Amino acid sequence: MQTLTGILKRVAIGVLAGLMPASCSIMDYEGDCSVNYRARFRYDMHLHYSDAFAHEVESVTLYAFDESGKFVQQFTDSGEALQQEGYALPFELPAGTYQFVAWCGVENELQSHDVPTLTPGVSTVEELTCSINREYDENQQATVEEIAPVFHAFVPHCTLSDEPGTHDIDIPLTKDTKTVRIVLQHLSGEPVDVNQFSFQITDENGLMAHDNSLLDDELLHYQPYYTASGTADMNSDGSRATTAISTALAELTVGRLVKDKDTRTILTVHNDKGETVLSIPLIDYALLIKGYYNQDLSDQEYLDRQDEYNLTFFLDENNHWISSSIIINSWRVVLSETEL
């Protein structure tokens, strides 16, 4: 039989859950006096909108800061546990109001990113940056090859209740790492030797703040981690006959693409004579295929949701780009004379 005290307690908990921020909610009442907190990570910030956390994220680190921005504690987990259905990271903190920052995937085999060590009660949330590791070539240019998938979240205000029960904190992730595939194809069908070309993307996007905005950084020169020459079977006229098309492929990974910044993200291809085959503002071209179905998204949200860009360029007999068209993620874009 339900007692009046029990009914009132459940009503009170329900009212409290309704008053708390969307990122902090009580999921269940356990019937005792214990208070438990869990961080539930989700990665649905992509164009399919389903939660892909279990398939994409290999490690998590959650940083807790007090209301004033002073570092309190961090919590980390990795491995197969993250792939389990309903995964949540348990953590212990006194009840109160916090800021939470998550950098996930930073612990990786490539050692491609670096996050500073923080001191509880001393370090501030502004000190929690994430940088892309780079090397320097003979010209002292900062170069980056392959970088691992890294994810970020920032919850600026979250109140942890001292009410008994299990409190689940929502941690929505954004994927910062992007994959860019460049395909070169001769319009004549002649073979394309990938060794006759060099590929590069330049950007000043190697240092991220606690809120995932870009901090001042040097110009990074992203290099391919994979190149290959090959053929692809194509059927262009609807018949059963296929034609083998020779292509050159280069794959690169880059940091977060941010539209509104002073430095443009430039994709450049040179031939073996050092001549420029093509040079385009990557972000402007990526937004050409944002399209009708994504028109409700801001440009920046679209860039954050799209994590792969496949670009096909057609070359003439002199290995120069025929700049009247380009294929981006299977969309053929016919370009006008207007410069982007």
How would you sum up this structure, described in words?
The protein has 340 residues and is mostly beta strands. The protein has two domains: 4-175, Sandwich (Immunoglobulin-like); 178-334, Immunoglobulin-like (Sandwich), CATH 2.60.40. It is 9% helix and 41% strand. It has helices at residues 4-19, 53-56, 282-286, 299-305, and strands spanning 24-28, 35-42, 59-66, 71-78, 89-91, 96-104, 113-114, 130-132, 135-136, 142-144, 151-160, 165-172, 174-175, 178-186, 197-203, 207-208, 220-222, 226-234, 243-254, 266-271, 276-281, 308-315, 325-328, 331-334. The strands form five sheets. It has a six-stranded mixed beta sheet. It has a six-stranded mixed beta sheet with strand order 18-19-14-22-23-24, with no helix packed on it. A five-stranded antiparallel beta sheet has the order 4-3-6-11-13, with no helix packed on it. The longest helix is centred in the first third of the chain and has 16 residues, at 4-19. The radius of gyration is 24 Å and the shape is elongated.
